[in-house]
Amino acid sequence: MNLRRLLAMAFKETLQVWRDPRSLAVALLMPLMQMAILGYGVSLDIKHVPLCVYDQENSQASRAIVDRFVSSGWFSVGHVISRESGIRYAMDRGECIAAIVIPVNFSRTLAASGSAPVQAIFDATDVNTTNIALGYAQGVVAQANAAVAAQWNSAHAAQPSLVGQTEIEPSVWFNETLDSRYFIVPGVVAVILALVGAQLTSLTISREWERGTMEQLISTPITALEVMLGKLIPYFVIGMADATFCLAVAIFWFSVPFRGSVGTLFVTTALFNVVVLGIGYLISVRIRSQLGASQVALLVTMLPTTLLSGYTFPIDQMPAPIRALTFFVYPRYYVTILRAIFLKGSGLADLWAPLLGLSLYAAAIIWLAARAFRKRL
Amino acid sequence: MAAPGEAAIRVHGLSKSFGQVQAVRAIGFDVSQGEIFGLVGPDGAGKTTTMRMLAAVLQPDEGEIVIDGVDVAAEPELAKLHLSYMPQRFGLYEDLTVSENIFFYAELFGVSRSERMSRSERLLSAAGLLSFRRRLAGQLSGGMKQKLGLVCALIHTPKVLLLDEPTTGVDPVSRRDFWAILYDLRESGVTIVLSTAYMDEAERCSRLALLHGGAIRHCDTPSRLKESMPGALLAIPAADPRGMRDALVGKPGVLGVLLMGDRVHVRVDDAAKRIPELHALLEGHGFPGAVIEPTEPGIEDVFVALLGQGSAS
Lengths: 377, 313
Prior knowledge:
- The structure holds 2 protein chains of 2 kinds.
- By secondary structure, chain A is mostly helical.
- Chain A has 14 helices and 4 strands.
- Chain A has a 4-stranded mixed beta sheet, with helices on both faces.
- In chain A, helix 3 (60-71) links the parallel strand 1 and strand 2.
- In chain A, helix 2 packs parallel to helix 9 and helix 7 (180-210) packs antiparallel against helix 9 (224-253).
- Chain A is elongated and about 95 Å long.
- The relative contact order of chain A is 0.12.
- Residues 160-168 of chain A have low confidence and may be disordered.
- Chain B has 2 domains: 7-226, P-loop containing nucleotide triphosphate hydrolases (Rossmann fold, 3-Layer(aba) Sandwich); 229-312, Alpha-Beta Plaits (2-Layer Sandwich), CATH 3.30.70.
- Chain B starts with 6 loop residues before the first strand and ends with a strand.
- The model of chain B has no long low-confidence stretch (mean pLDDT 89).
- The interface between A and B is medium-sized, with 26 and 32 residues.
């Protein structure tokens, strides 16, 4: 290997990226846009679910229940209606996706027996949202129950049970506020790096073929390995710069708590970049048109990365065959690593399993990439 | 380096097929050090395929290429150290400037900084490109691009220079610059192989290989090729060359008719016998008083005659 030829290649490639508006846009604008779109757009939290209230009683007790829903922050009352058919009407018009119906004898039943039914109705056309809203509703009702039970007990001077009441006291670690953004934003960083890196390198060899510069290049003494390393160095620098940018946005803009070490972050990110760039390079060697290569790179990275990396859809809940497939989806390792570094402050030793997966991947890709390019027409 | 007089390039039994198409069929030739060797032939004759195999960028199916004592098929990378190849399609980076392209190729061949400076100065001035150093290669004219290609190819003083149709689409002034550089190179002992479709350019070569259908039909110096042309060549000025050609084709003793601008070149088996016959023939076809004179064949005449084409239409 000749360092001079390698550096000449790196220098030339840097000039070309610098002068290519399309590559520059992918390198600089894509991370910015995706960070904004995915960081803000993808959230599994639901706030201010539009709620429709049909309070048949309109007593102090019934209003207290409604207040609990509103003050939880998860719901906002859009409509107070006075007919049962109004619920259907409001749901059809999309003005609410949840409704609560408080029966006419609510406070009387409550006072008499200590418990009274409240009906909750959900528009389940969006199952995901409904499930989450249902969970919130149950939480609100549970709180109300506890309050009512305490009142009822004191009013009836009941003796606390001898065995005592068993209560589950949830203790949430690592993401204490259960904010899904903390969970998603590190995943977004992984997705962006995978997309941008592969896009950039997918053009590098195909550009030489398409513009007719390859024939002269392969007539020189430069070796295939020098071509590969020389071409990947500039993209590695760009990839690390993009990573720094995205991670900084995650920490300082989206305020995701960062509990790990910068060193661990750097080492794992560098390893991930090697895999990403290697894959783009492999595609570029195989496909001799820039458009074709960039399409394939998009296809190969986009779907597995967004669907199977676990960045929004939890891998644990996938069917077994799909779960097995995710071991071949390299971003899953980096998503796992990033979340652990961010939220748990894990070090390299704690991360040995995903690191091993990523390292094996990197070794295989580099091995393939180094052999893929032949200095022949 | 090969000893003086010894072949700098030896090609033997070289063949290459693409699917069903046999692009090059068992060709062989030797080129001595300091020669300018021309591959001449129509499009599709196998010129580019041959050049690519010589440049070690295309693997031959069969045959042997030895350049400066190195077996090209066995050790392509070693051969490339002393080769320079200029492909037919402009092969430099259009988004790099003239200087950046030169720098890149100089680095690939390990040329030292001082050598690069002095050599690029000299080559750029010979090519008339000194004032274009900072211009992007993509913004140069066709002729300037080809000269820049030559500058980059010569930045490491190769022993063998391979040029595939180097002056196609190049203006006459740039072509003159180009050839001046080639003659200088030959003086310094560089062996040059070039392919061309231009007959006037073929005449400047020390030896020519006439390629047709992937095979070498004839290989000799331009003057001996001319001597070997069968028959005699007559030139007839004509106001309507096409009409005259149609009148002459296929007549007794006429071996070939070639349009040469405002004249018609007629190749006949025997000049003394056929000139009176042609006078009579042309009278009868409405070309009275035609001036028929023997003429020296150009390489185009030879080419057409040797490749056995009746007429170039």
